[in-house]
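Sample entry as discussed:
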Amino acid sequence: AFCQCGSNSTARAKSAIAAVGSGSYGRTDLCFYVDGTADNNPVTAADEKVRINKSGNVGIGTTSPNEKLEVSGNALIQSGGNQIKLENSATTSLIRMEKTSNGNDYMIIGEENGVSNIKSVDQDIVISLQDTDGSSTSMNEQIRVRHPDGKIQLNASTSESRGIINFKNAAE
C-alpha cells in the first residue's frame, strides 16, 4: 500500500507498507517506509523505519531485529504513572524508576529485595547488599555517595558509619 500525498500534481508516494520476502514458502517481513524529504523522489528501501520480522520481532531503526523489541537509536519512554519498570518473566524488577508520594526519586538496578541494588535516594547514590549470613533477606546500605558534597560514606546503614572518604583536588 502506498500513500500519495501532497497538494499538487507532482506529489510522490512518500510512505509505504510492504511485505518483503524473507524466506521460502512465502514467508515475509512487514516493513513500514517513510520518506520525509521535500523532493519529488518516491519512497525507497532506504526509507525503512519499522520492521516486523517473520519471528514477530519488531525493529525500529534496524532491518534485522533479534529481540521482541529492538531500537537502534535513542528512545523515549514516558509513564503516565509514577513508575517505569523493566522486569523479567518472573515479574522481578531489573530496573525500576519511581517518584514516591513523598517526592523522592528512586532508580533501582537489580532486585529491590534481592542480592544487591543501586538506587538514587534524595539525590544520593546508594549501593545496598543482602545480609551475607543467609539468616535475613534485609538489604543493608553499604556505600552512599552524598549529594551535594560528593563524600563517600561506607557501611552507611548504621547510625555510626565506619568511615567517610574525602577526595580533594591536589591544588587545595
Q: What stands out?
A: DSSP finds no helices and 14 strands in the chain. The chain has a mean pLDDT of 76. Residues 143 and 154 are 5 Å apart (CA to CA).
